[in-house]
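Batch 3, record 17
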Amino acid sequence: MNATIAKLALQALLGRRRFFLLLAFPVLLVGLVALVTALTDGEAAFELLPGLGYPLVLPLVAILAASSVLGPEVDDGSIVYLLAKPVNRYAVAFSKWLVALAATLAAGSLPILLAALLTGDAGRAWALFVGAVVAGTAYSALFLAISAVTRHAVIASLMFVLIWESLLGNLFTGIAWLSIGQWGLRVGHELSDQLPDPASLPWAIGASLVVTVVGVWFAGDRLRSFTLRGED
Amino acid sequence: MSTLVLDSASRWFGNVVAVNDVSLTIGPGVTGLLGPNGAGKTTLLAMMSGFLAPSSGHVTLDGRPVWRNTEIYRRIGLVPERELSFGYLTGRQFVRANADLHRLPDAAAATERILGVVDMVEPAGRRLDTYSKGMRQRVKIAAALVHDPSVLLLDEPFNGVDPRQRMHLMDLLRRLGDEGRTVLFSSHILEEVERLARHIEVVVSGRHAASGDFGAIRQLMTDRPVQYAVQSSDNRTLAALLMEQVSVRAVALRGDHLDVQVDDLGSFAVGLPELARRHDLTIFELSPSDESLESVFAYLVAR
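Prediction for the assembled complex:
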């Protein structure tokens, strides 16, 4: 962990226009759930969370956070200013991940908890929150790794979420075994039966851990091999 | 005192060879890396600064390989050509972050000291995205120098910098070289390199074309055969007279002018007016037809 890298990553996150997008998602989600709760009842409003908040807003926030702390610097090569230092590159990746994780939890998982609490059942809300923390942790590490590899990190990450997890995940139940969102729900299921129980608990915990650790390690490894190219 | 050594270093990207079997030793003092655009200067600097693995050969700093070795950055300061994208930071914050990343014992004092060296104390409180090109360049140099490295590598540091700032930067680099640091900068402009560097390395098309002090390189460049276009009152008579000169290698009649190939630049240019006057000829026009830097480089490679 390197405090300076983390501080710069935080400034990169807060100093760009993307930050307002990052802020808009949770505000809209909580606002929508509050509105539906007021107009109908808590049950209909809660459906928005497993239907929209959890599978879409949470990963989108994670994508924004992870790509903001690393993406632009890798894209335009200005990360050399951070890397031309006697600092362990895994520490660079880890510090940046911590900032992305904090942002994902604050702007993704926490609003899901708030919105779920608005709909009534507190047990169910906390269970979903735990799931969102697990998934947010793995998402941020995965998307950080993707940001370290490709210039098209946002597109690649979106494809993972929209096509793999959402579209194919709805068609084939087996994909739950390879879906970060489903692992989170499986962990949350232990706290509340109202969440679905895809895959198995040890698998969900183990796989989330592996994705997190390998994702951050891989991002660090890519940084170790970071190559400076000319303008052309 | 540090020495950077490239030993038969090559780098290729797929089928394209960017750097071809280059062996160089860069020691203390200011060295200029001269070459036209696309010659492989950035690739060389990337290899020297540990941001590119050589495809073959070795790149070492004081005997230790630089690739995947973050410890070298205690001794190296790098000023890439890349623009700073940290526009949301002030100059001071940016330099301070660099000092902090080096874990300097007194980062705040080091930051102020180096801002003073590059003469950026006053604007250091402003955001980077409000800076002119020359100011950004100086902040980049401050960031690279804040940990007092023995080696400073700069990629095209004078690109887009206005003349006054350029003078200032040159003075600064000269001072750093005089202090015994190893300073290497790349440029595609001969005059820039000449004015600043004691030692010059020339690269063309990824190959090491020439090496030596400024005088030797200048000599190489002025001694090469030069083409002139001459227009006079009587081209045919002048052609006959020119062929008698030792320095002239070839003369051709081309419509209304003469193409003259000359070996020794100095004596030809000095002798021509006198020759014309003696034979009552009037010279209307005398112009070198291939003074472009590219032809100079092409000559050095073909040599």
